[in-house]
Backbone:
């Protein structure tokens, strides 16, 4: 805590009184931006109620004046807005982190502009969302009493990603596009998740996935020094690992990429992974609903926390059951052209060498709907316009999605995503 106003520059400042001091030297502590300053004062008329707004004028001789601007009607509380973003003793303050977030957005847009990308804006409300079974979607409802509003005429959903519409733009001839937008996933909460989050997504026509992986590292090097406190000066390439190599090395499990769920479960049990899979073994015995994702990600949880501890790493060539919208790798049967970036055990980005085959895409969507049904999730309409667009011919392309909230966690060393948001869901 600052001991006086001496370090404030000449000029006018605005402060909130956060507490009175009665021990030793009487005075009051003021909060200016996100720093505390103590003002010793014997004049009772200059003691203002806690929570009050005051104007502080610092003259060229270092003298100061205090003027009351607004009394507080209620006492300061830790859960109130007065201290929500600049809680005393919390460093870095949430206000400071939001300033870094602002800089992150500015510099990210600058990098894409310098690299000749076009910024796009696509709808947040769509008729055909991603049907992948692990997504818990947010459906949008209107309030029209006559069922005449467009939201009443057919189901509508908030996007989990702007992917489908951006790919339609690739079909239309756009070659390098990016977007920063809000995305929504209903079931994701915790220190690394929030149901509403900010996604950076970009696509390059006629580019390989490796080129987009390079984009990520180049963007981070551009941000180095631009975001206060973040310095990443190394030109060393980020390691590129393969999923099957990690499974073999860390768990002793050989992957072919084409295992049925039961086969993968049995392989894992044979390698001593019983404790991680105990409930799934019971599930298998009592039901036929076992799915590949459930088994795989129980095992992946044993690997993920240690990824990218020294520097970010890429994990490439994912099993085909986890291909999502990635193309199969012709030289690695059973595996897809998919890569994820990890730093400090956190997934930052997810990219695909994009699937352009409309028949295969429809087959995957239909399988997703079957998996949604098995998981007792609501069925959703498929994005027919996206599927029709693929029929027109999408150029060979690659795409990348990067969570900007998580990127800011890594850049600042903060552990909870709430600290880099203006408001979390439970604060609205």
Residues:
């Amino acid at each position: 805590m600052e001991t006086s106003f001496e370090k404030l520059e000449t000029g006018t400042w605005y402060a909130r009184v956060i507490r009175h001091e009665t021990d030793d030297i009487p005075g009051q502590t003021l909060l200016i931006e996100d720093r505390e300053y103590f003002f010793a004062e014997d004049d009772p008329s200059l003691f203002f109620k806690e929570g009050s707004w005051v104007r502080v004028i610092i003259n060229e001789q270092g003298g100061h004046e205090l003027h009351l601007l607004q009394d507080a009607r209620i006492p300061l509380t830790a859960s109130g807005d007065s201290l929500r973003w600049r809680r005393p003793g919390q460093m870095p303050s949430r206000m400071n982190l939001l300033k870094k977030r602002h800089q992150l957005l500015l510099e990210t847009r600058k990098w894409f502009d310098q690299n000749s990308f076009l910024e796009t804006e696509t709808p947040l409300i769509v008729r055909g969302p991603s049907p992948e079974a692990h997504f818990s979607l947010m459906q949008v409802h209107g309030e029209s009493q006559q069922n005449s509003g467009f939201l009443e005429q057919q189901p509508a959903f908030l996007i989990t990603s702007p992917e489908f519409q951006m790919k339609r733009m690739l079909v239309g001839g756009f070659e390098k596009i990016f977007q920063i937008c809000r995305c929504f996933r209903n079931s994701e909460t915790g220190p690394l998740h929030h149901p509403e989050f900010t996604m950076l997504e970009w696509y390059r026509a006629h580019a390989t996935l490796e080129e987009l992986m390079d984009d990520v590292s180049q963007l981070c090097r551009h941000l180095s020094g631009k975001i206060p406190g973040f310095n990443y000066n190394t030109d060393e390439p980020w390691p590129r690992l393969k999923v099957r190599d990690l499974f073999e090395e860390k768990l002793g499990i050989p992957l072919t990429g084409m295992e049925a769920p039961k086969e993968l479960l049995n392989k894992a049990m044979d390698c001593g992974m019983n404790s991680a899979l105990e409930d799934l073994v019971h599930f298998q015995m009592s039901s036929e609903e076992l799915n590949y994702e459930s088994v795989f990600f129980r095992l992946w949880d044993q690997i993920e926390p240690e990824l990218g501890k020294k520097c970010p790493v890429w994990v490439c060539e994912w099993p085909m059951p986890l291909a999502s919208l990635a193309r199969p790798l012709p030289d690695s049967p059973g595996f897809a052209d998919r890569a994820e970036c990890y730093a400090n055990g956190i997934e930052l980005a997810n990219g695909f060498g994009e699937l352009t085959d409309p028949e295969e895409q429809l087959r995957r969507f239909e399988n997703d709907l079957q998996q949604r049904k098995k998981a007792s999730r609501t069925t959703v309409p498929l994005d027919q316009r996206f599927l029709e667009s693929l029929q027109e011919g999408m150029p060979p392309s690659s795409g990348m999605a990067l969570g900007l909230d998580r990127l800011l966690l890594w850049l600042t060393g903060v552990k909870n995503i709430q600290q880099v948001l203006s408001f979390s869901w439970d604060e609205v």
The two ends are 31 Å apart (CA to CA).
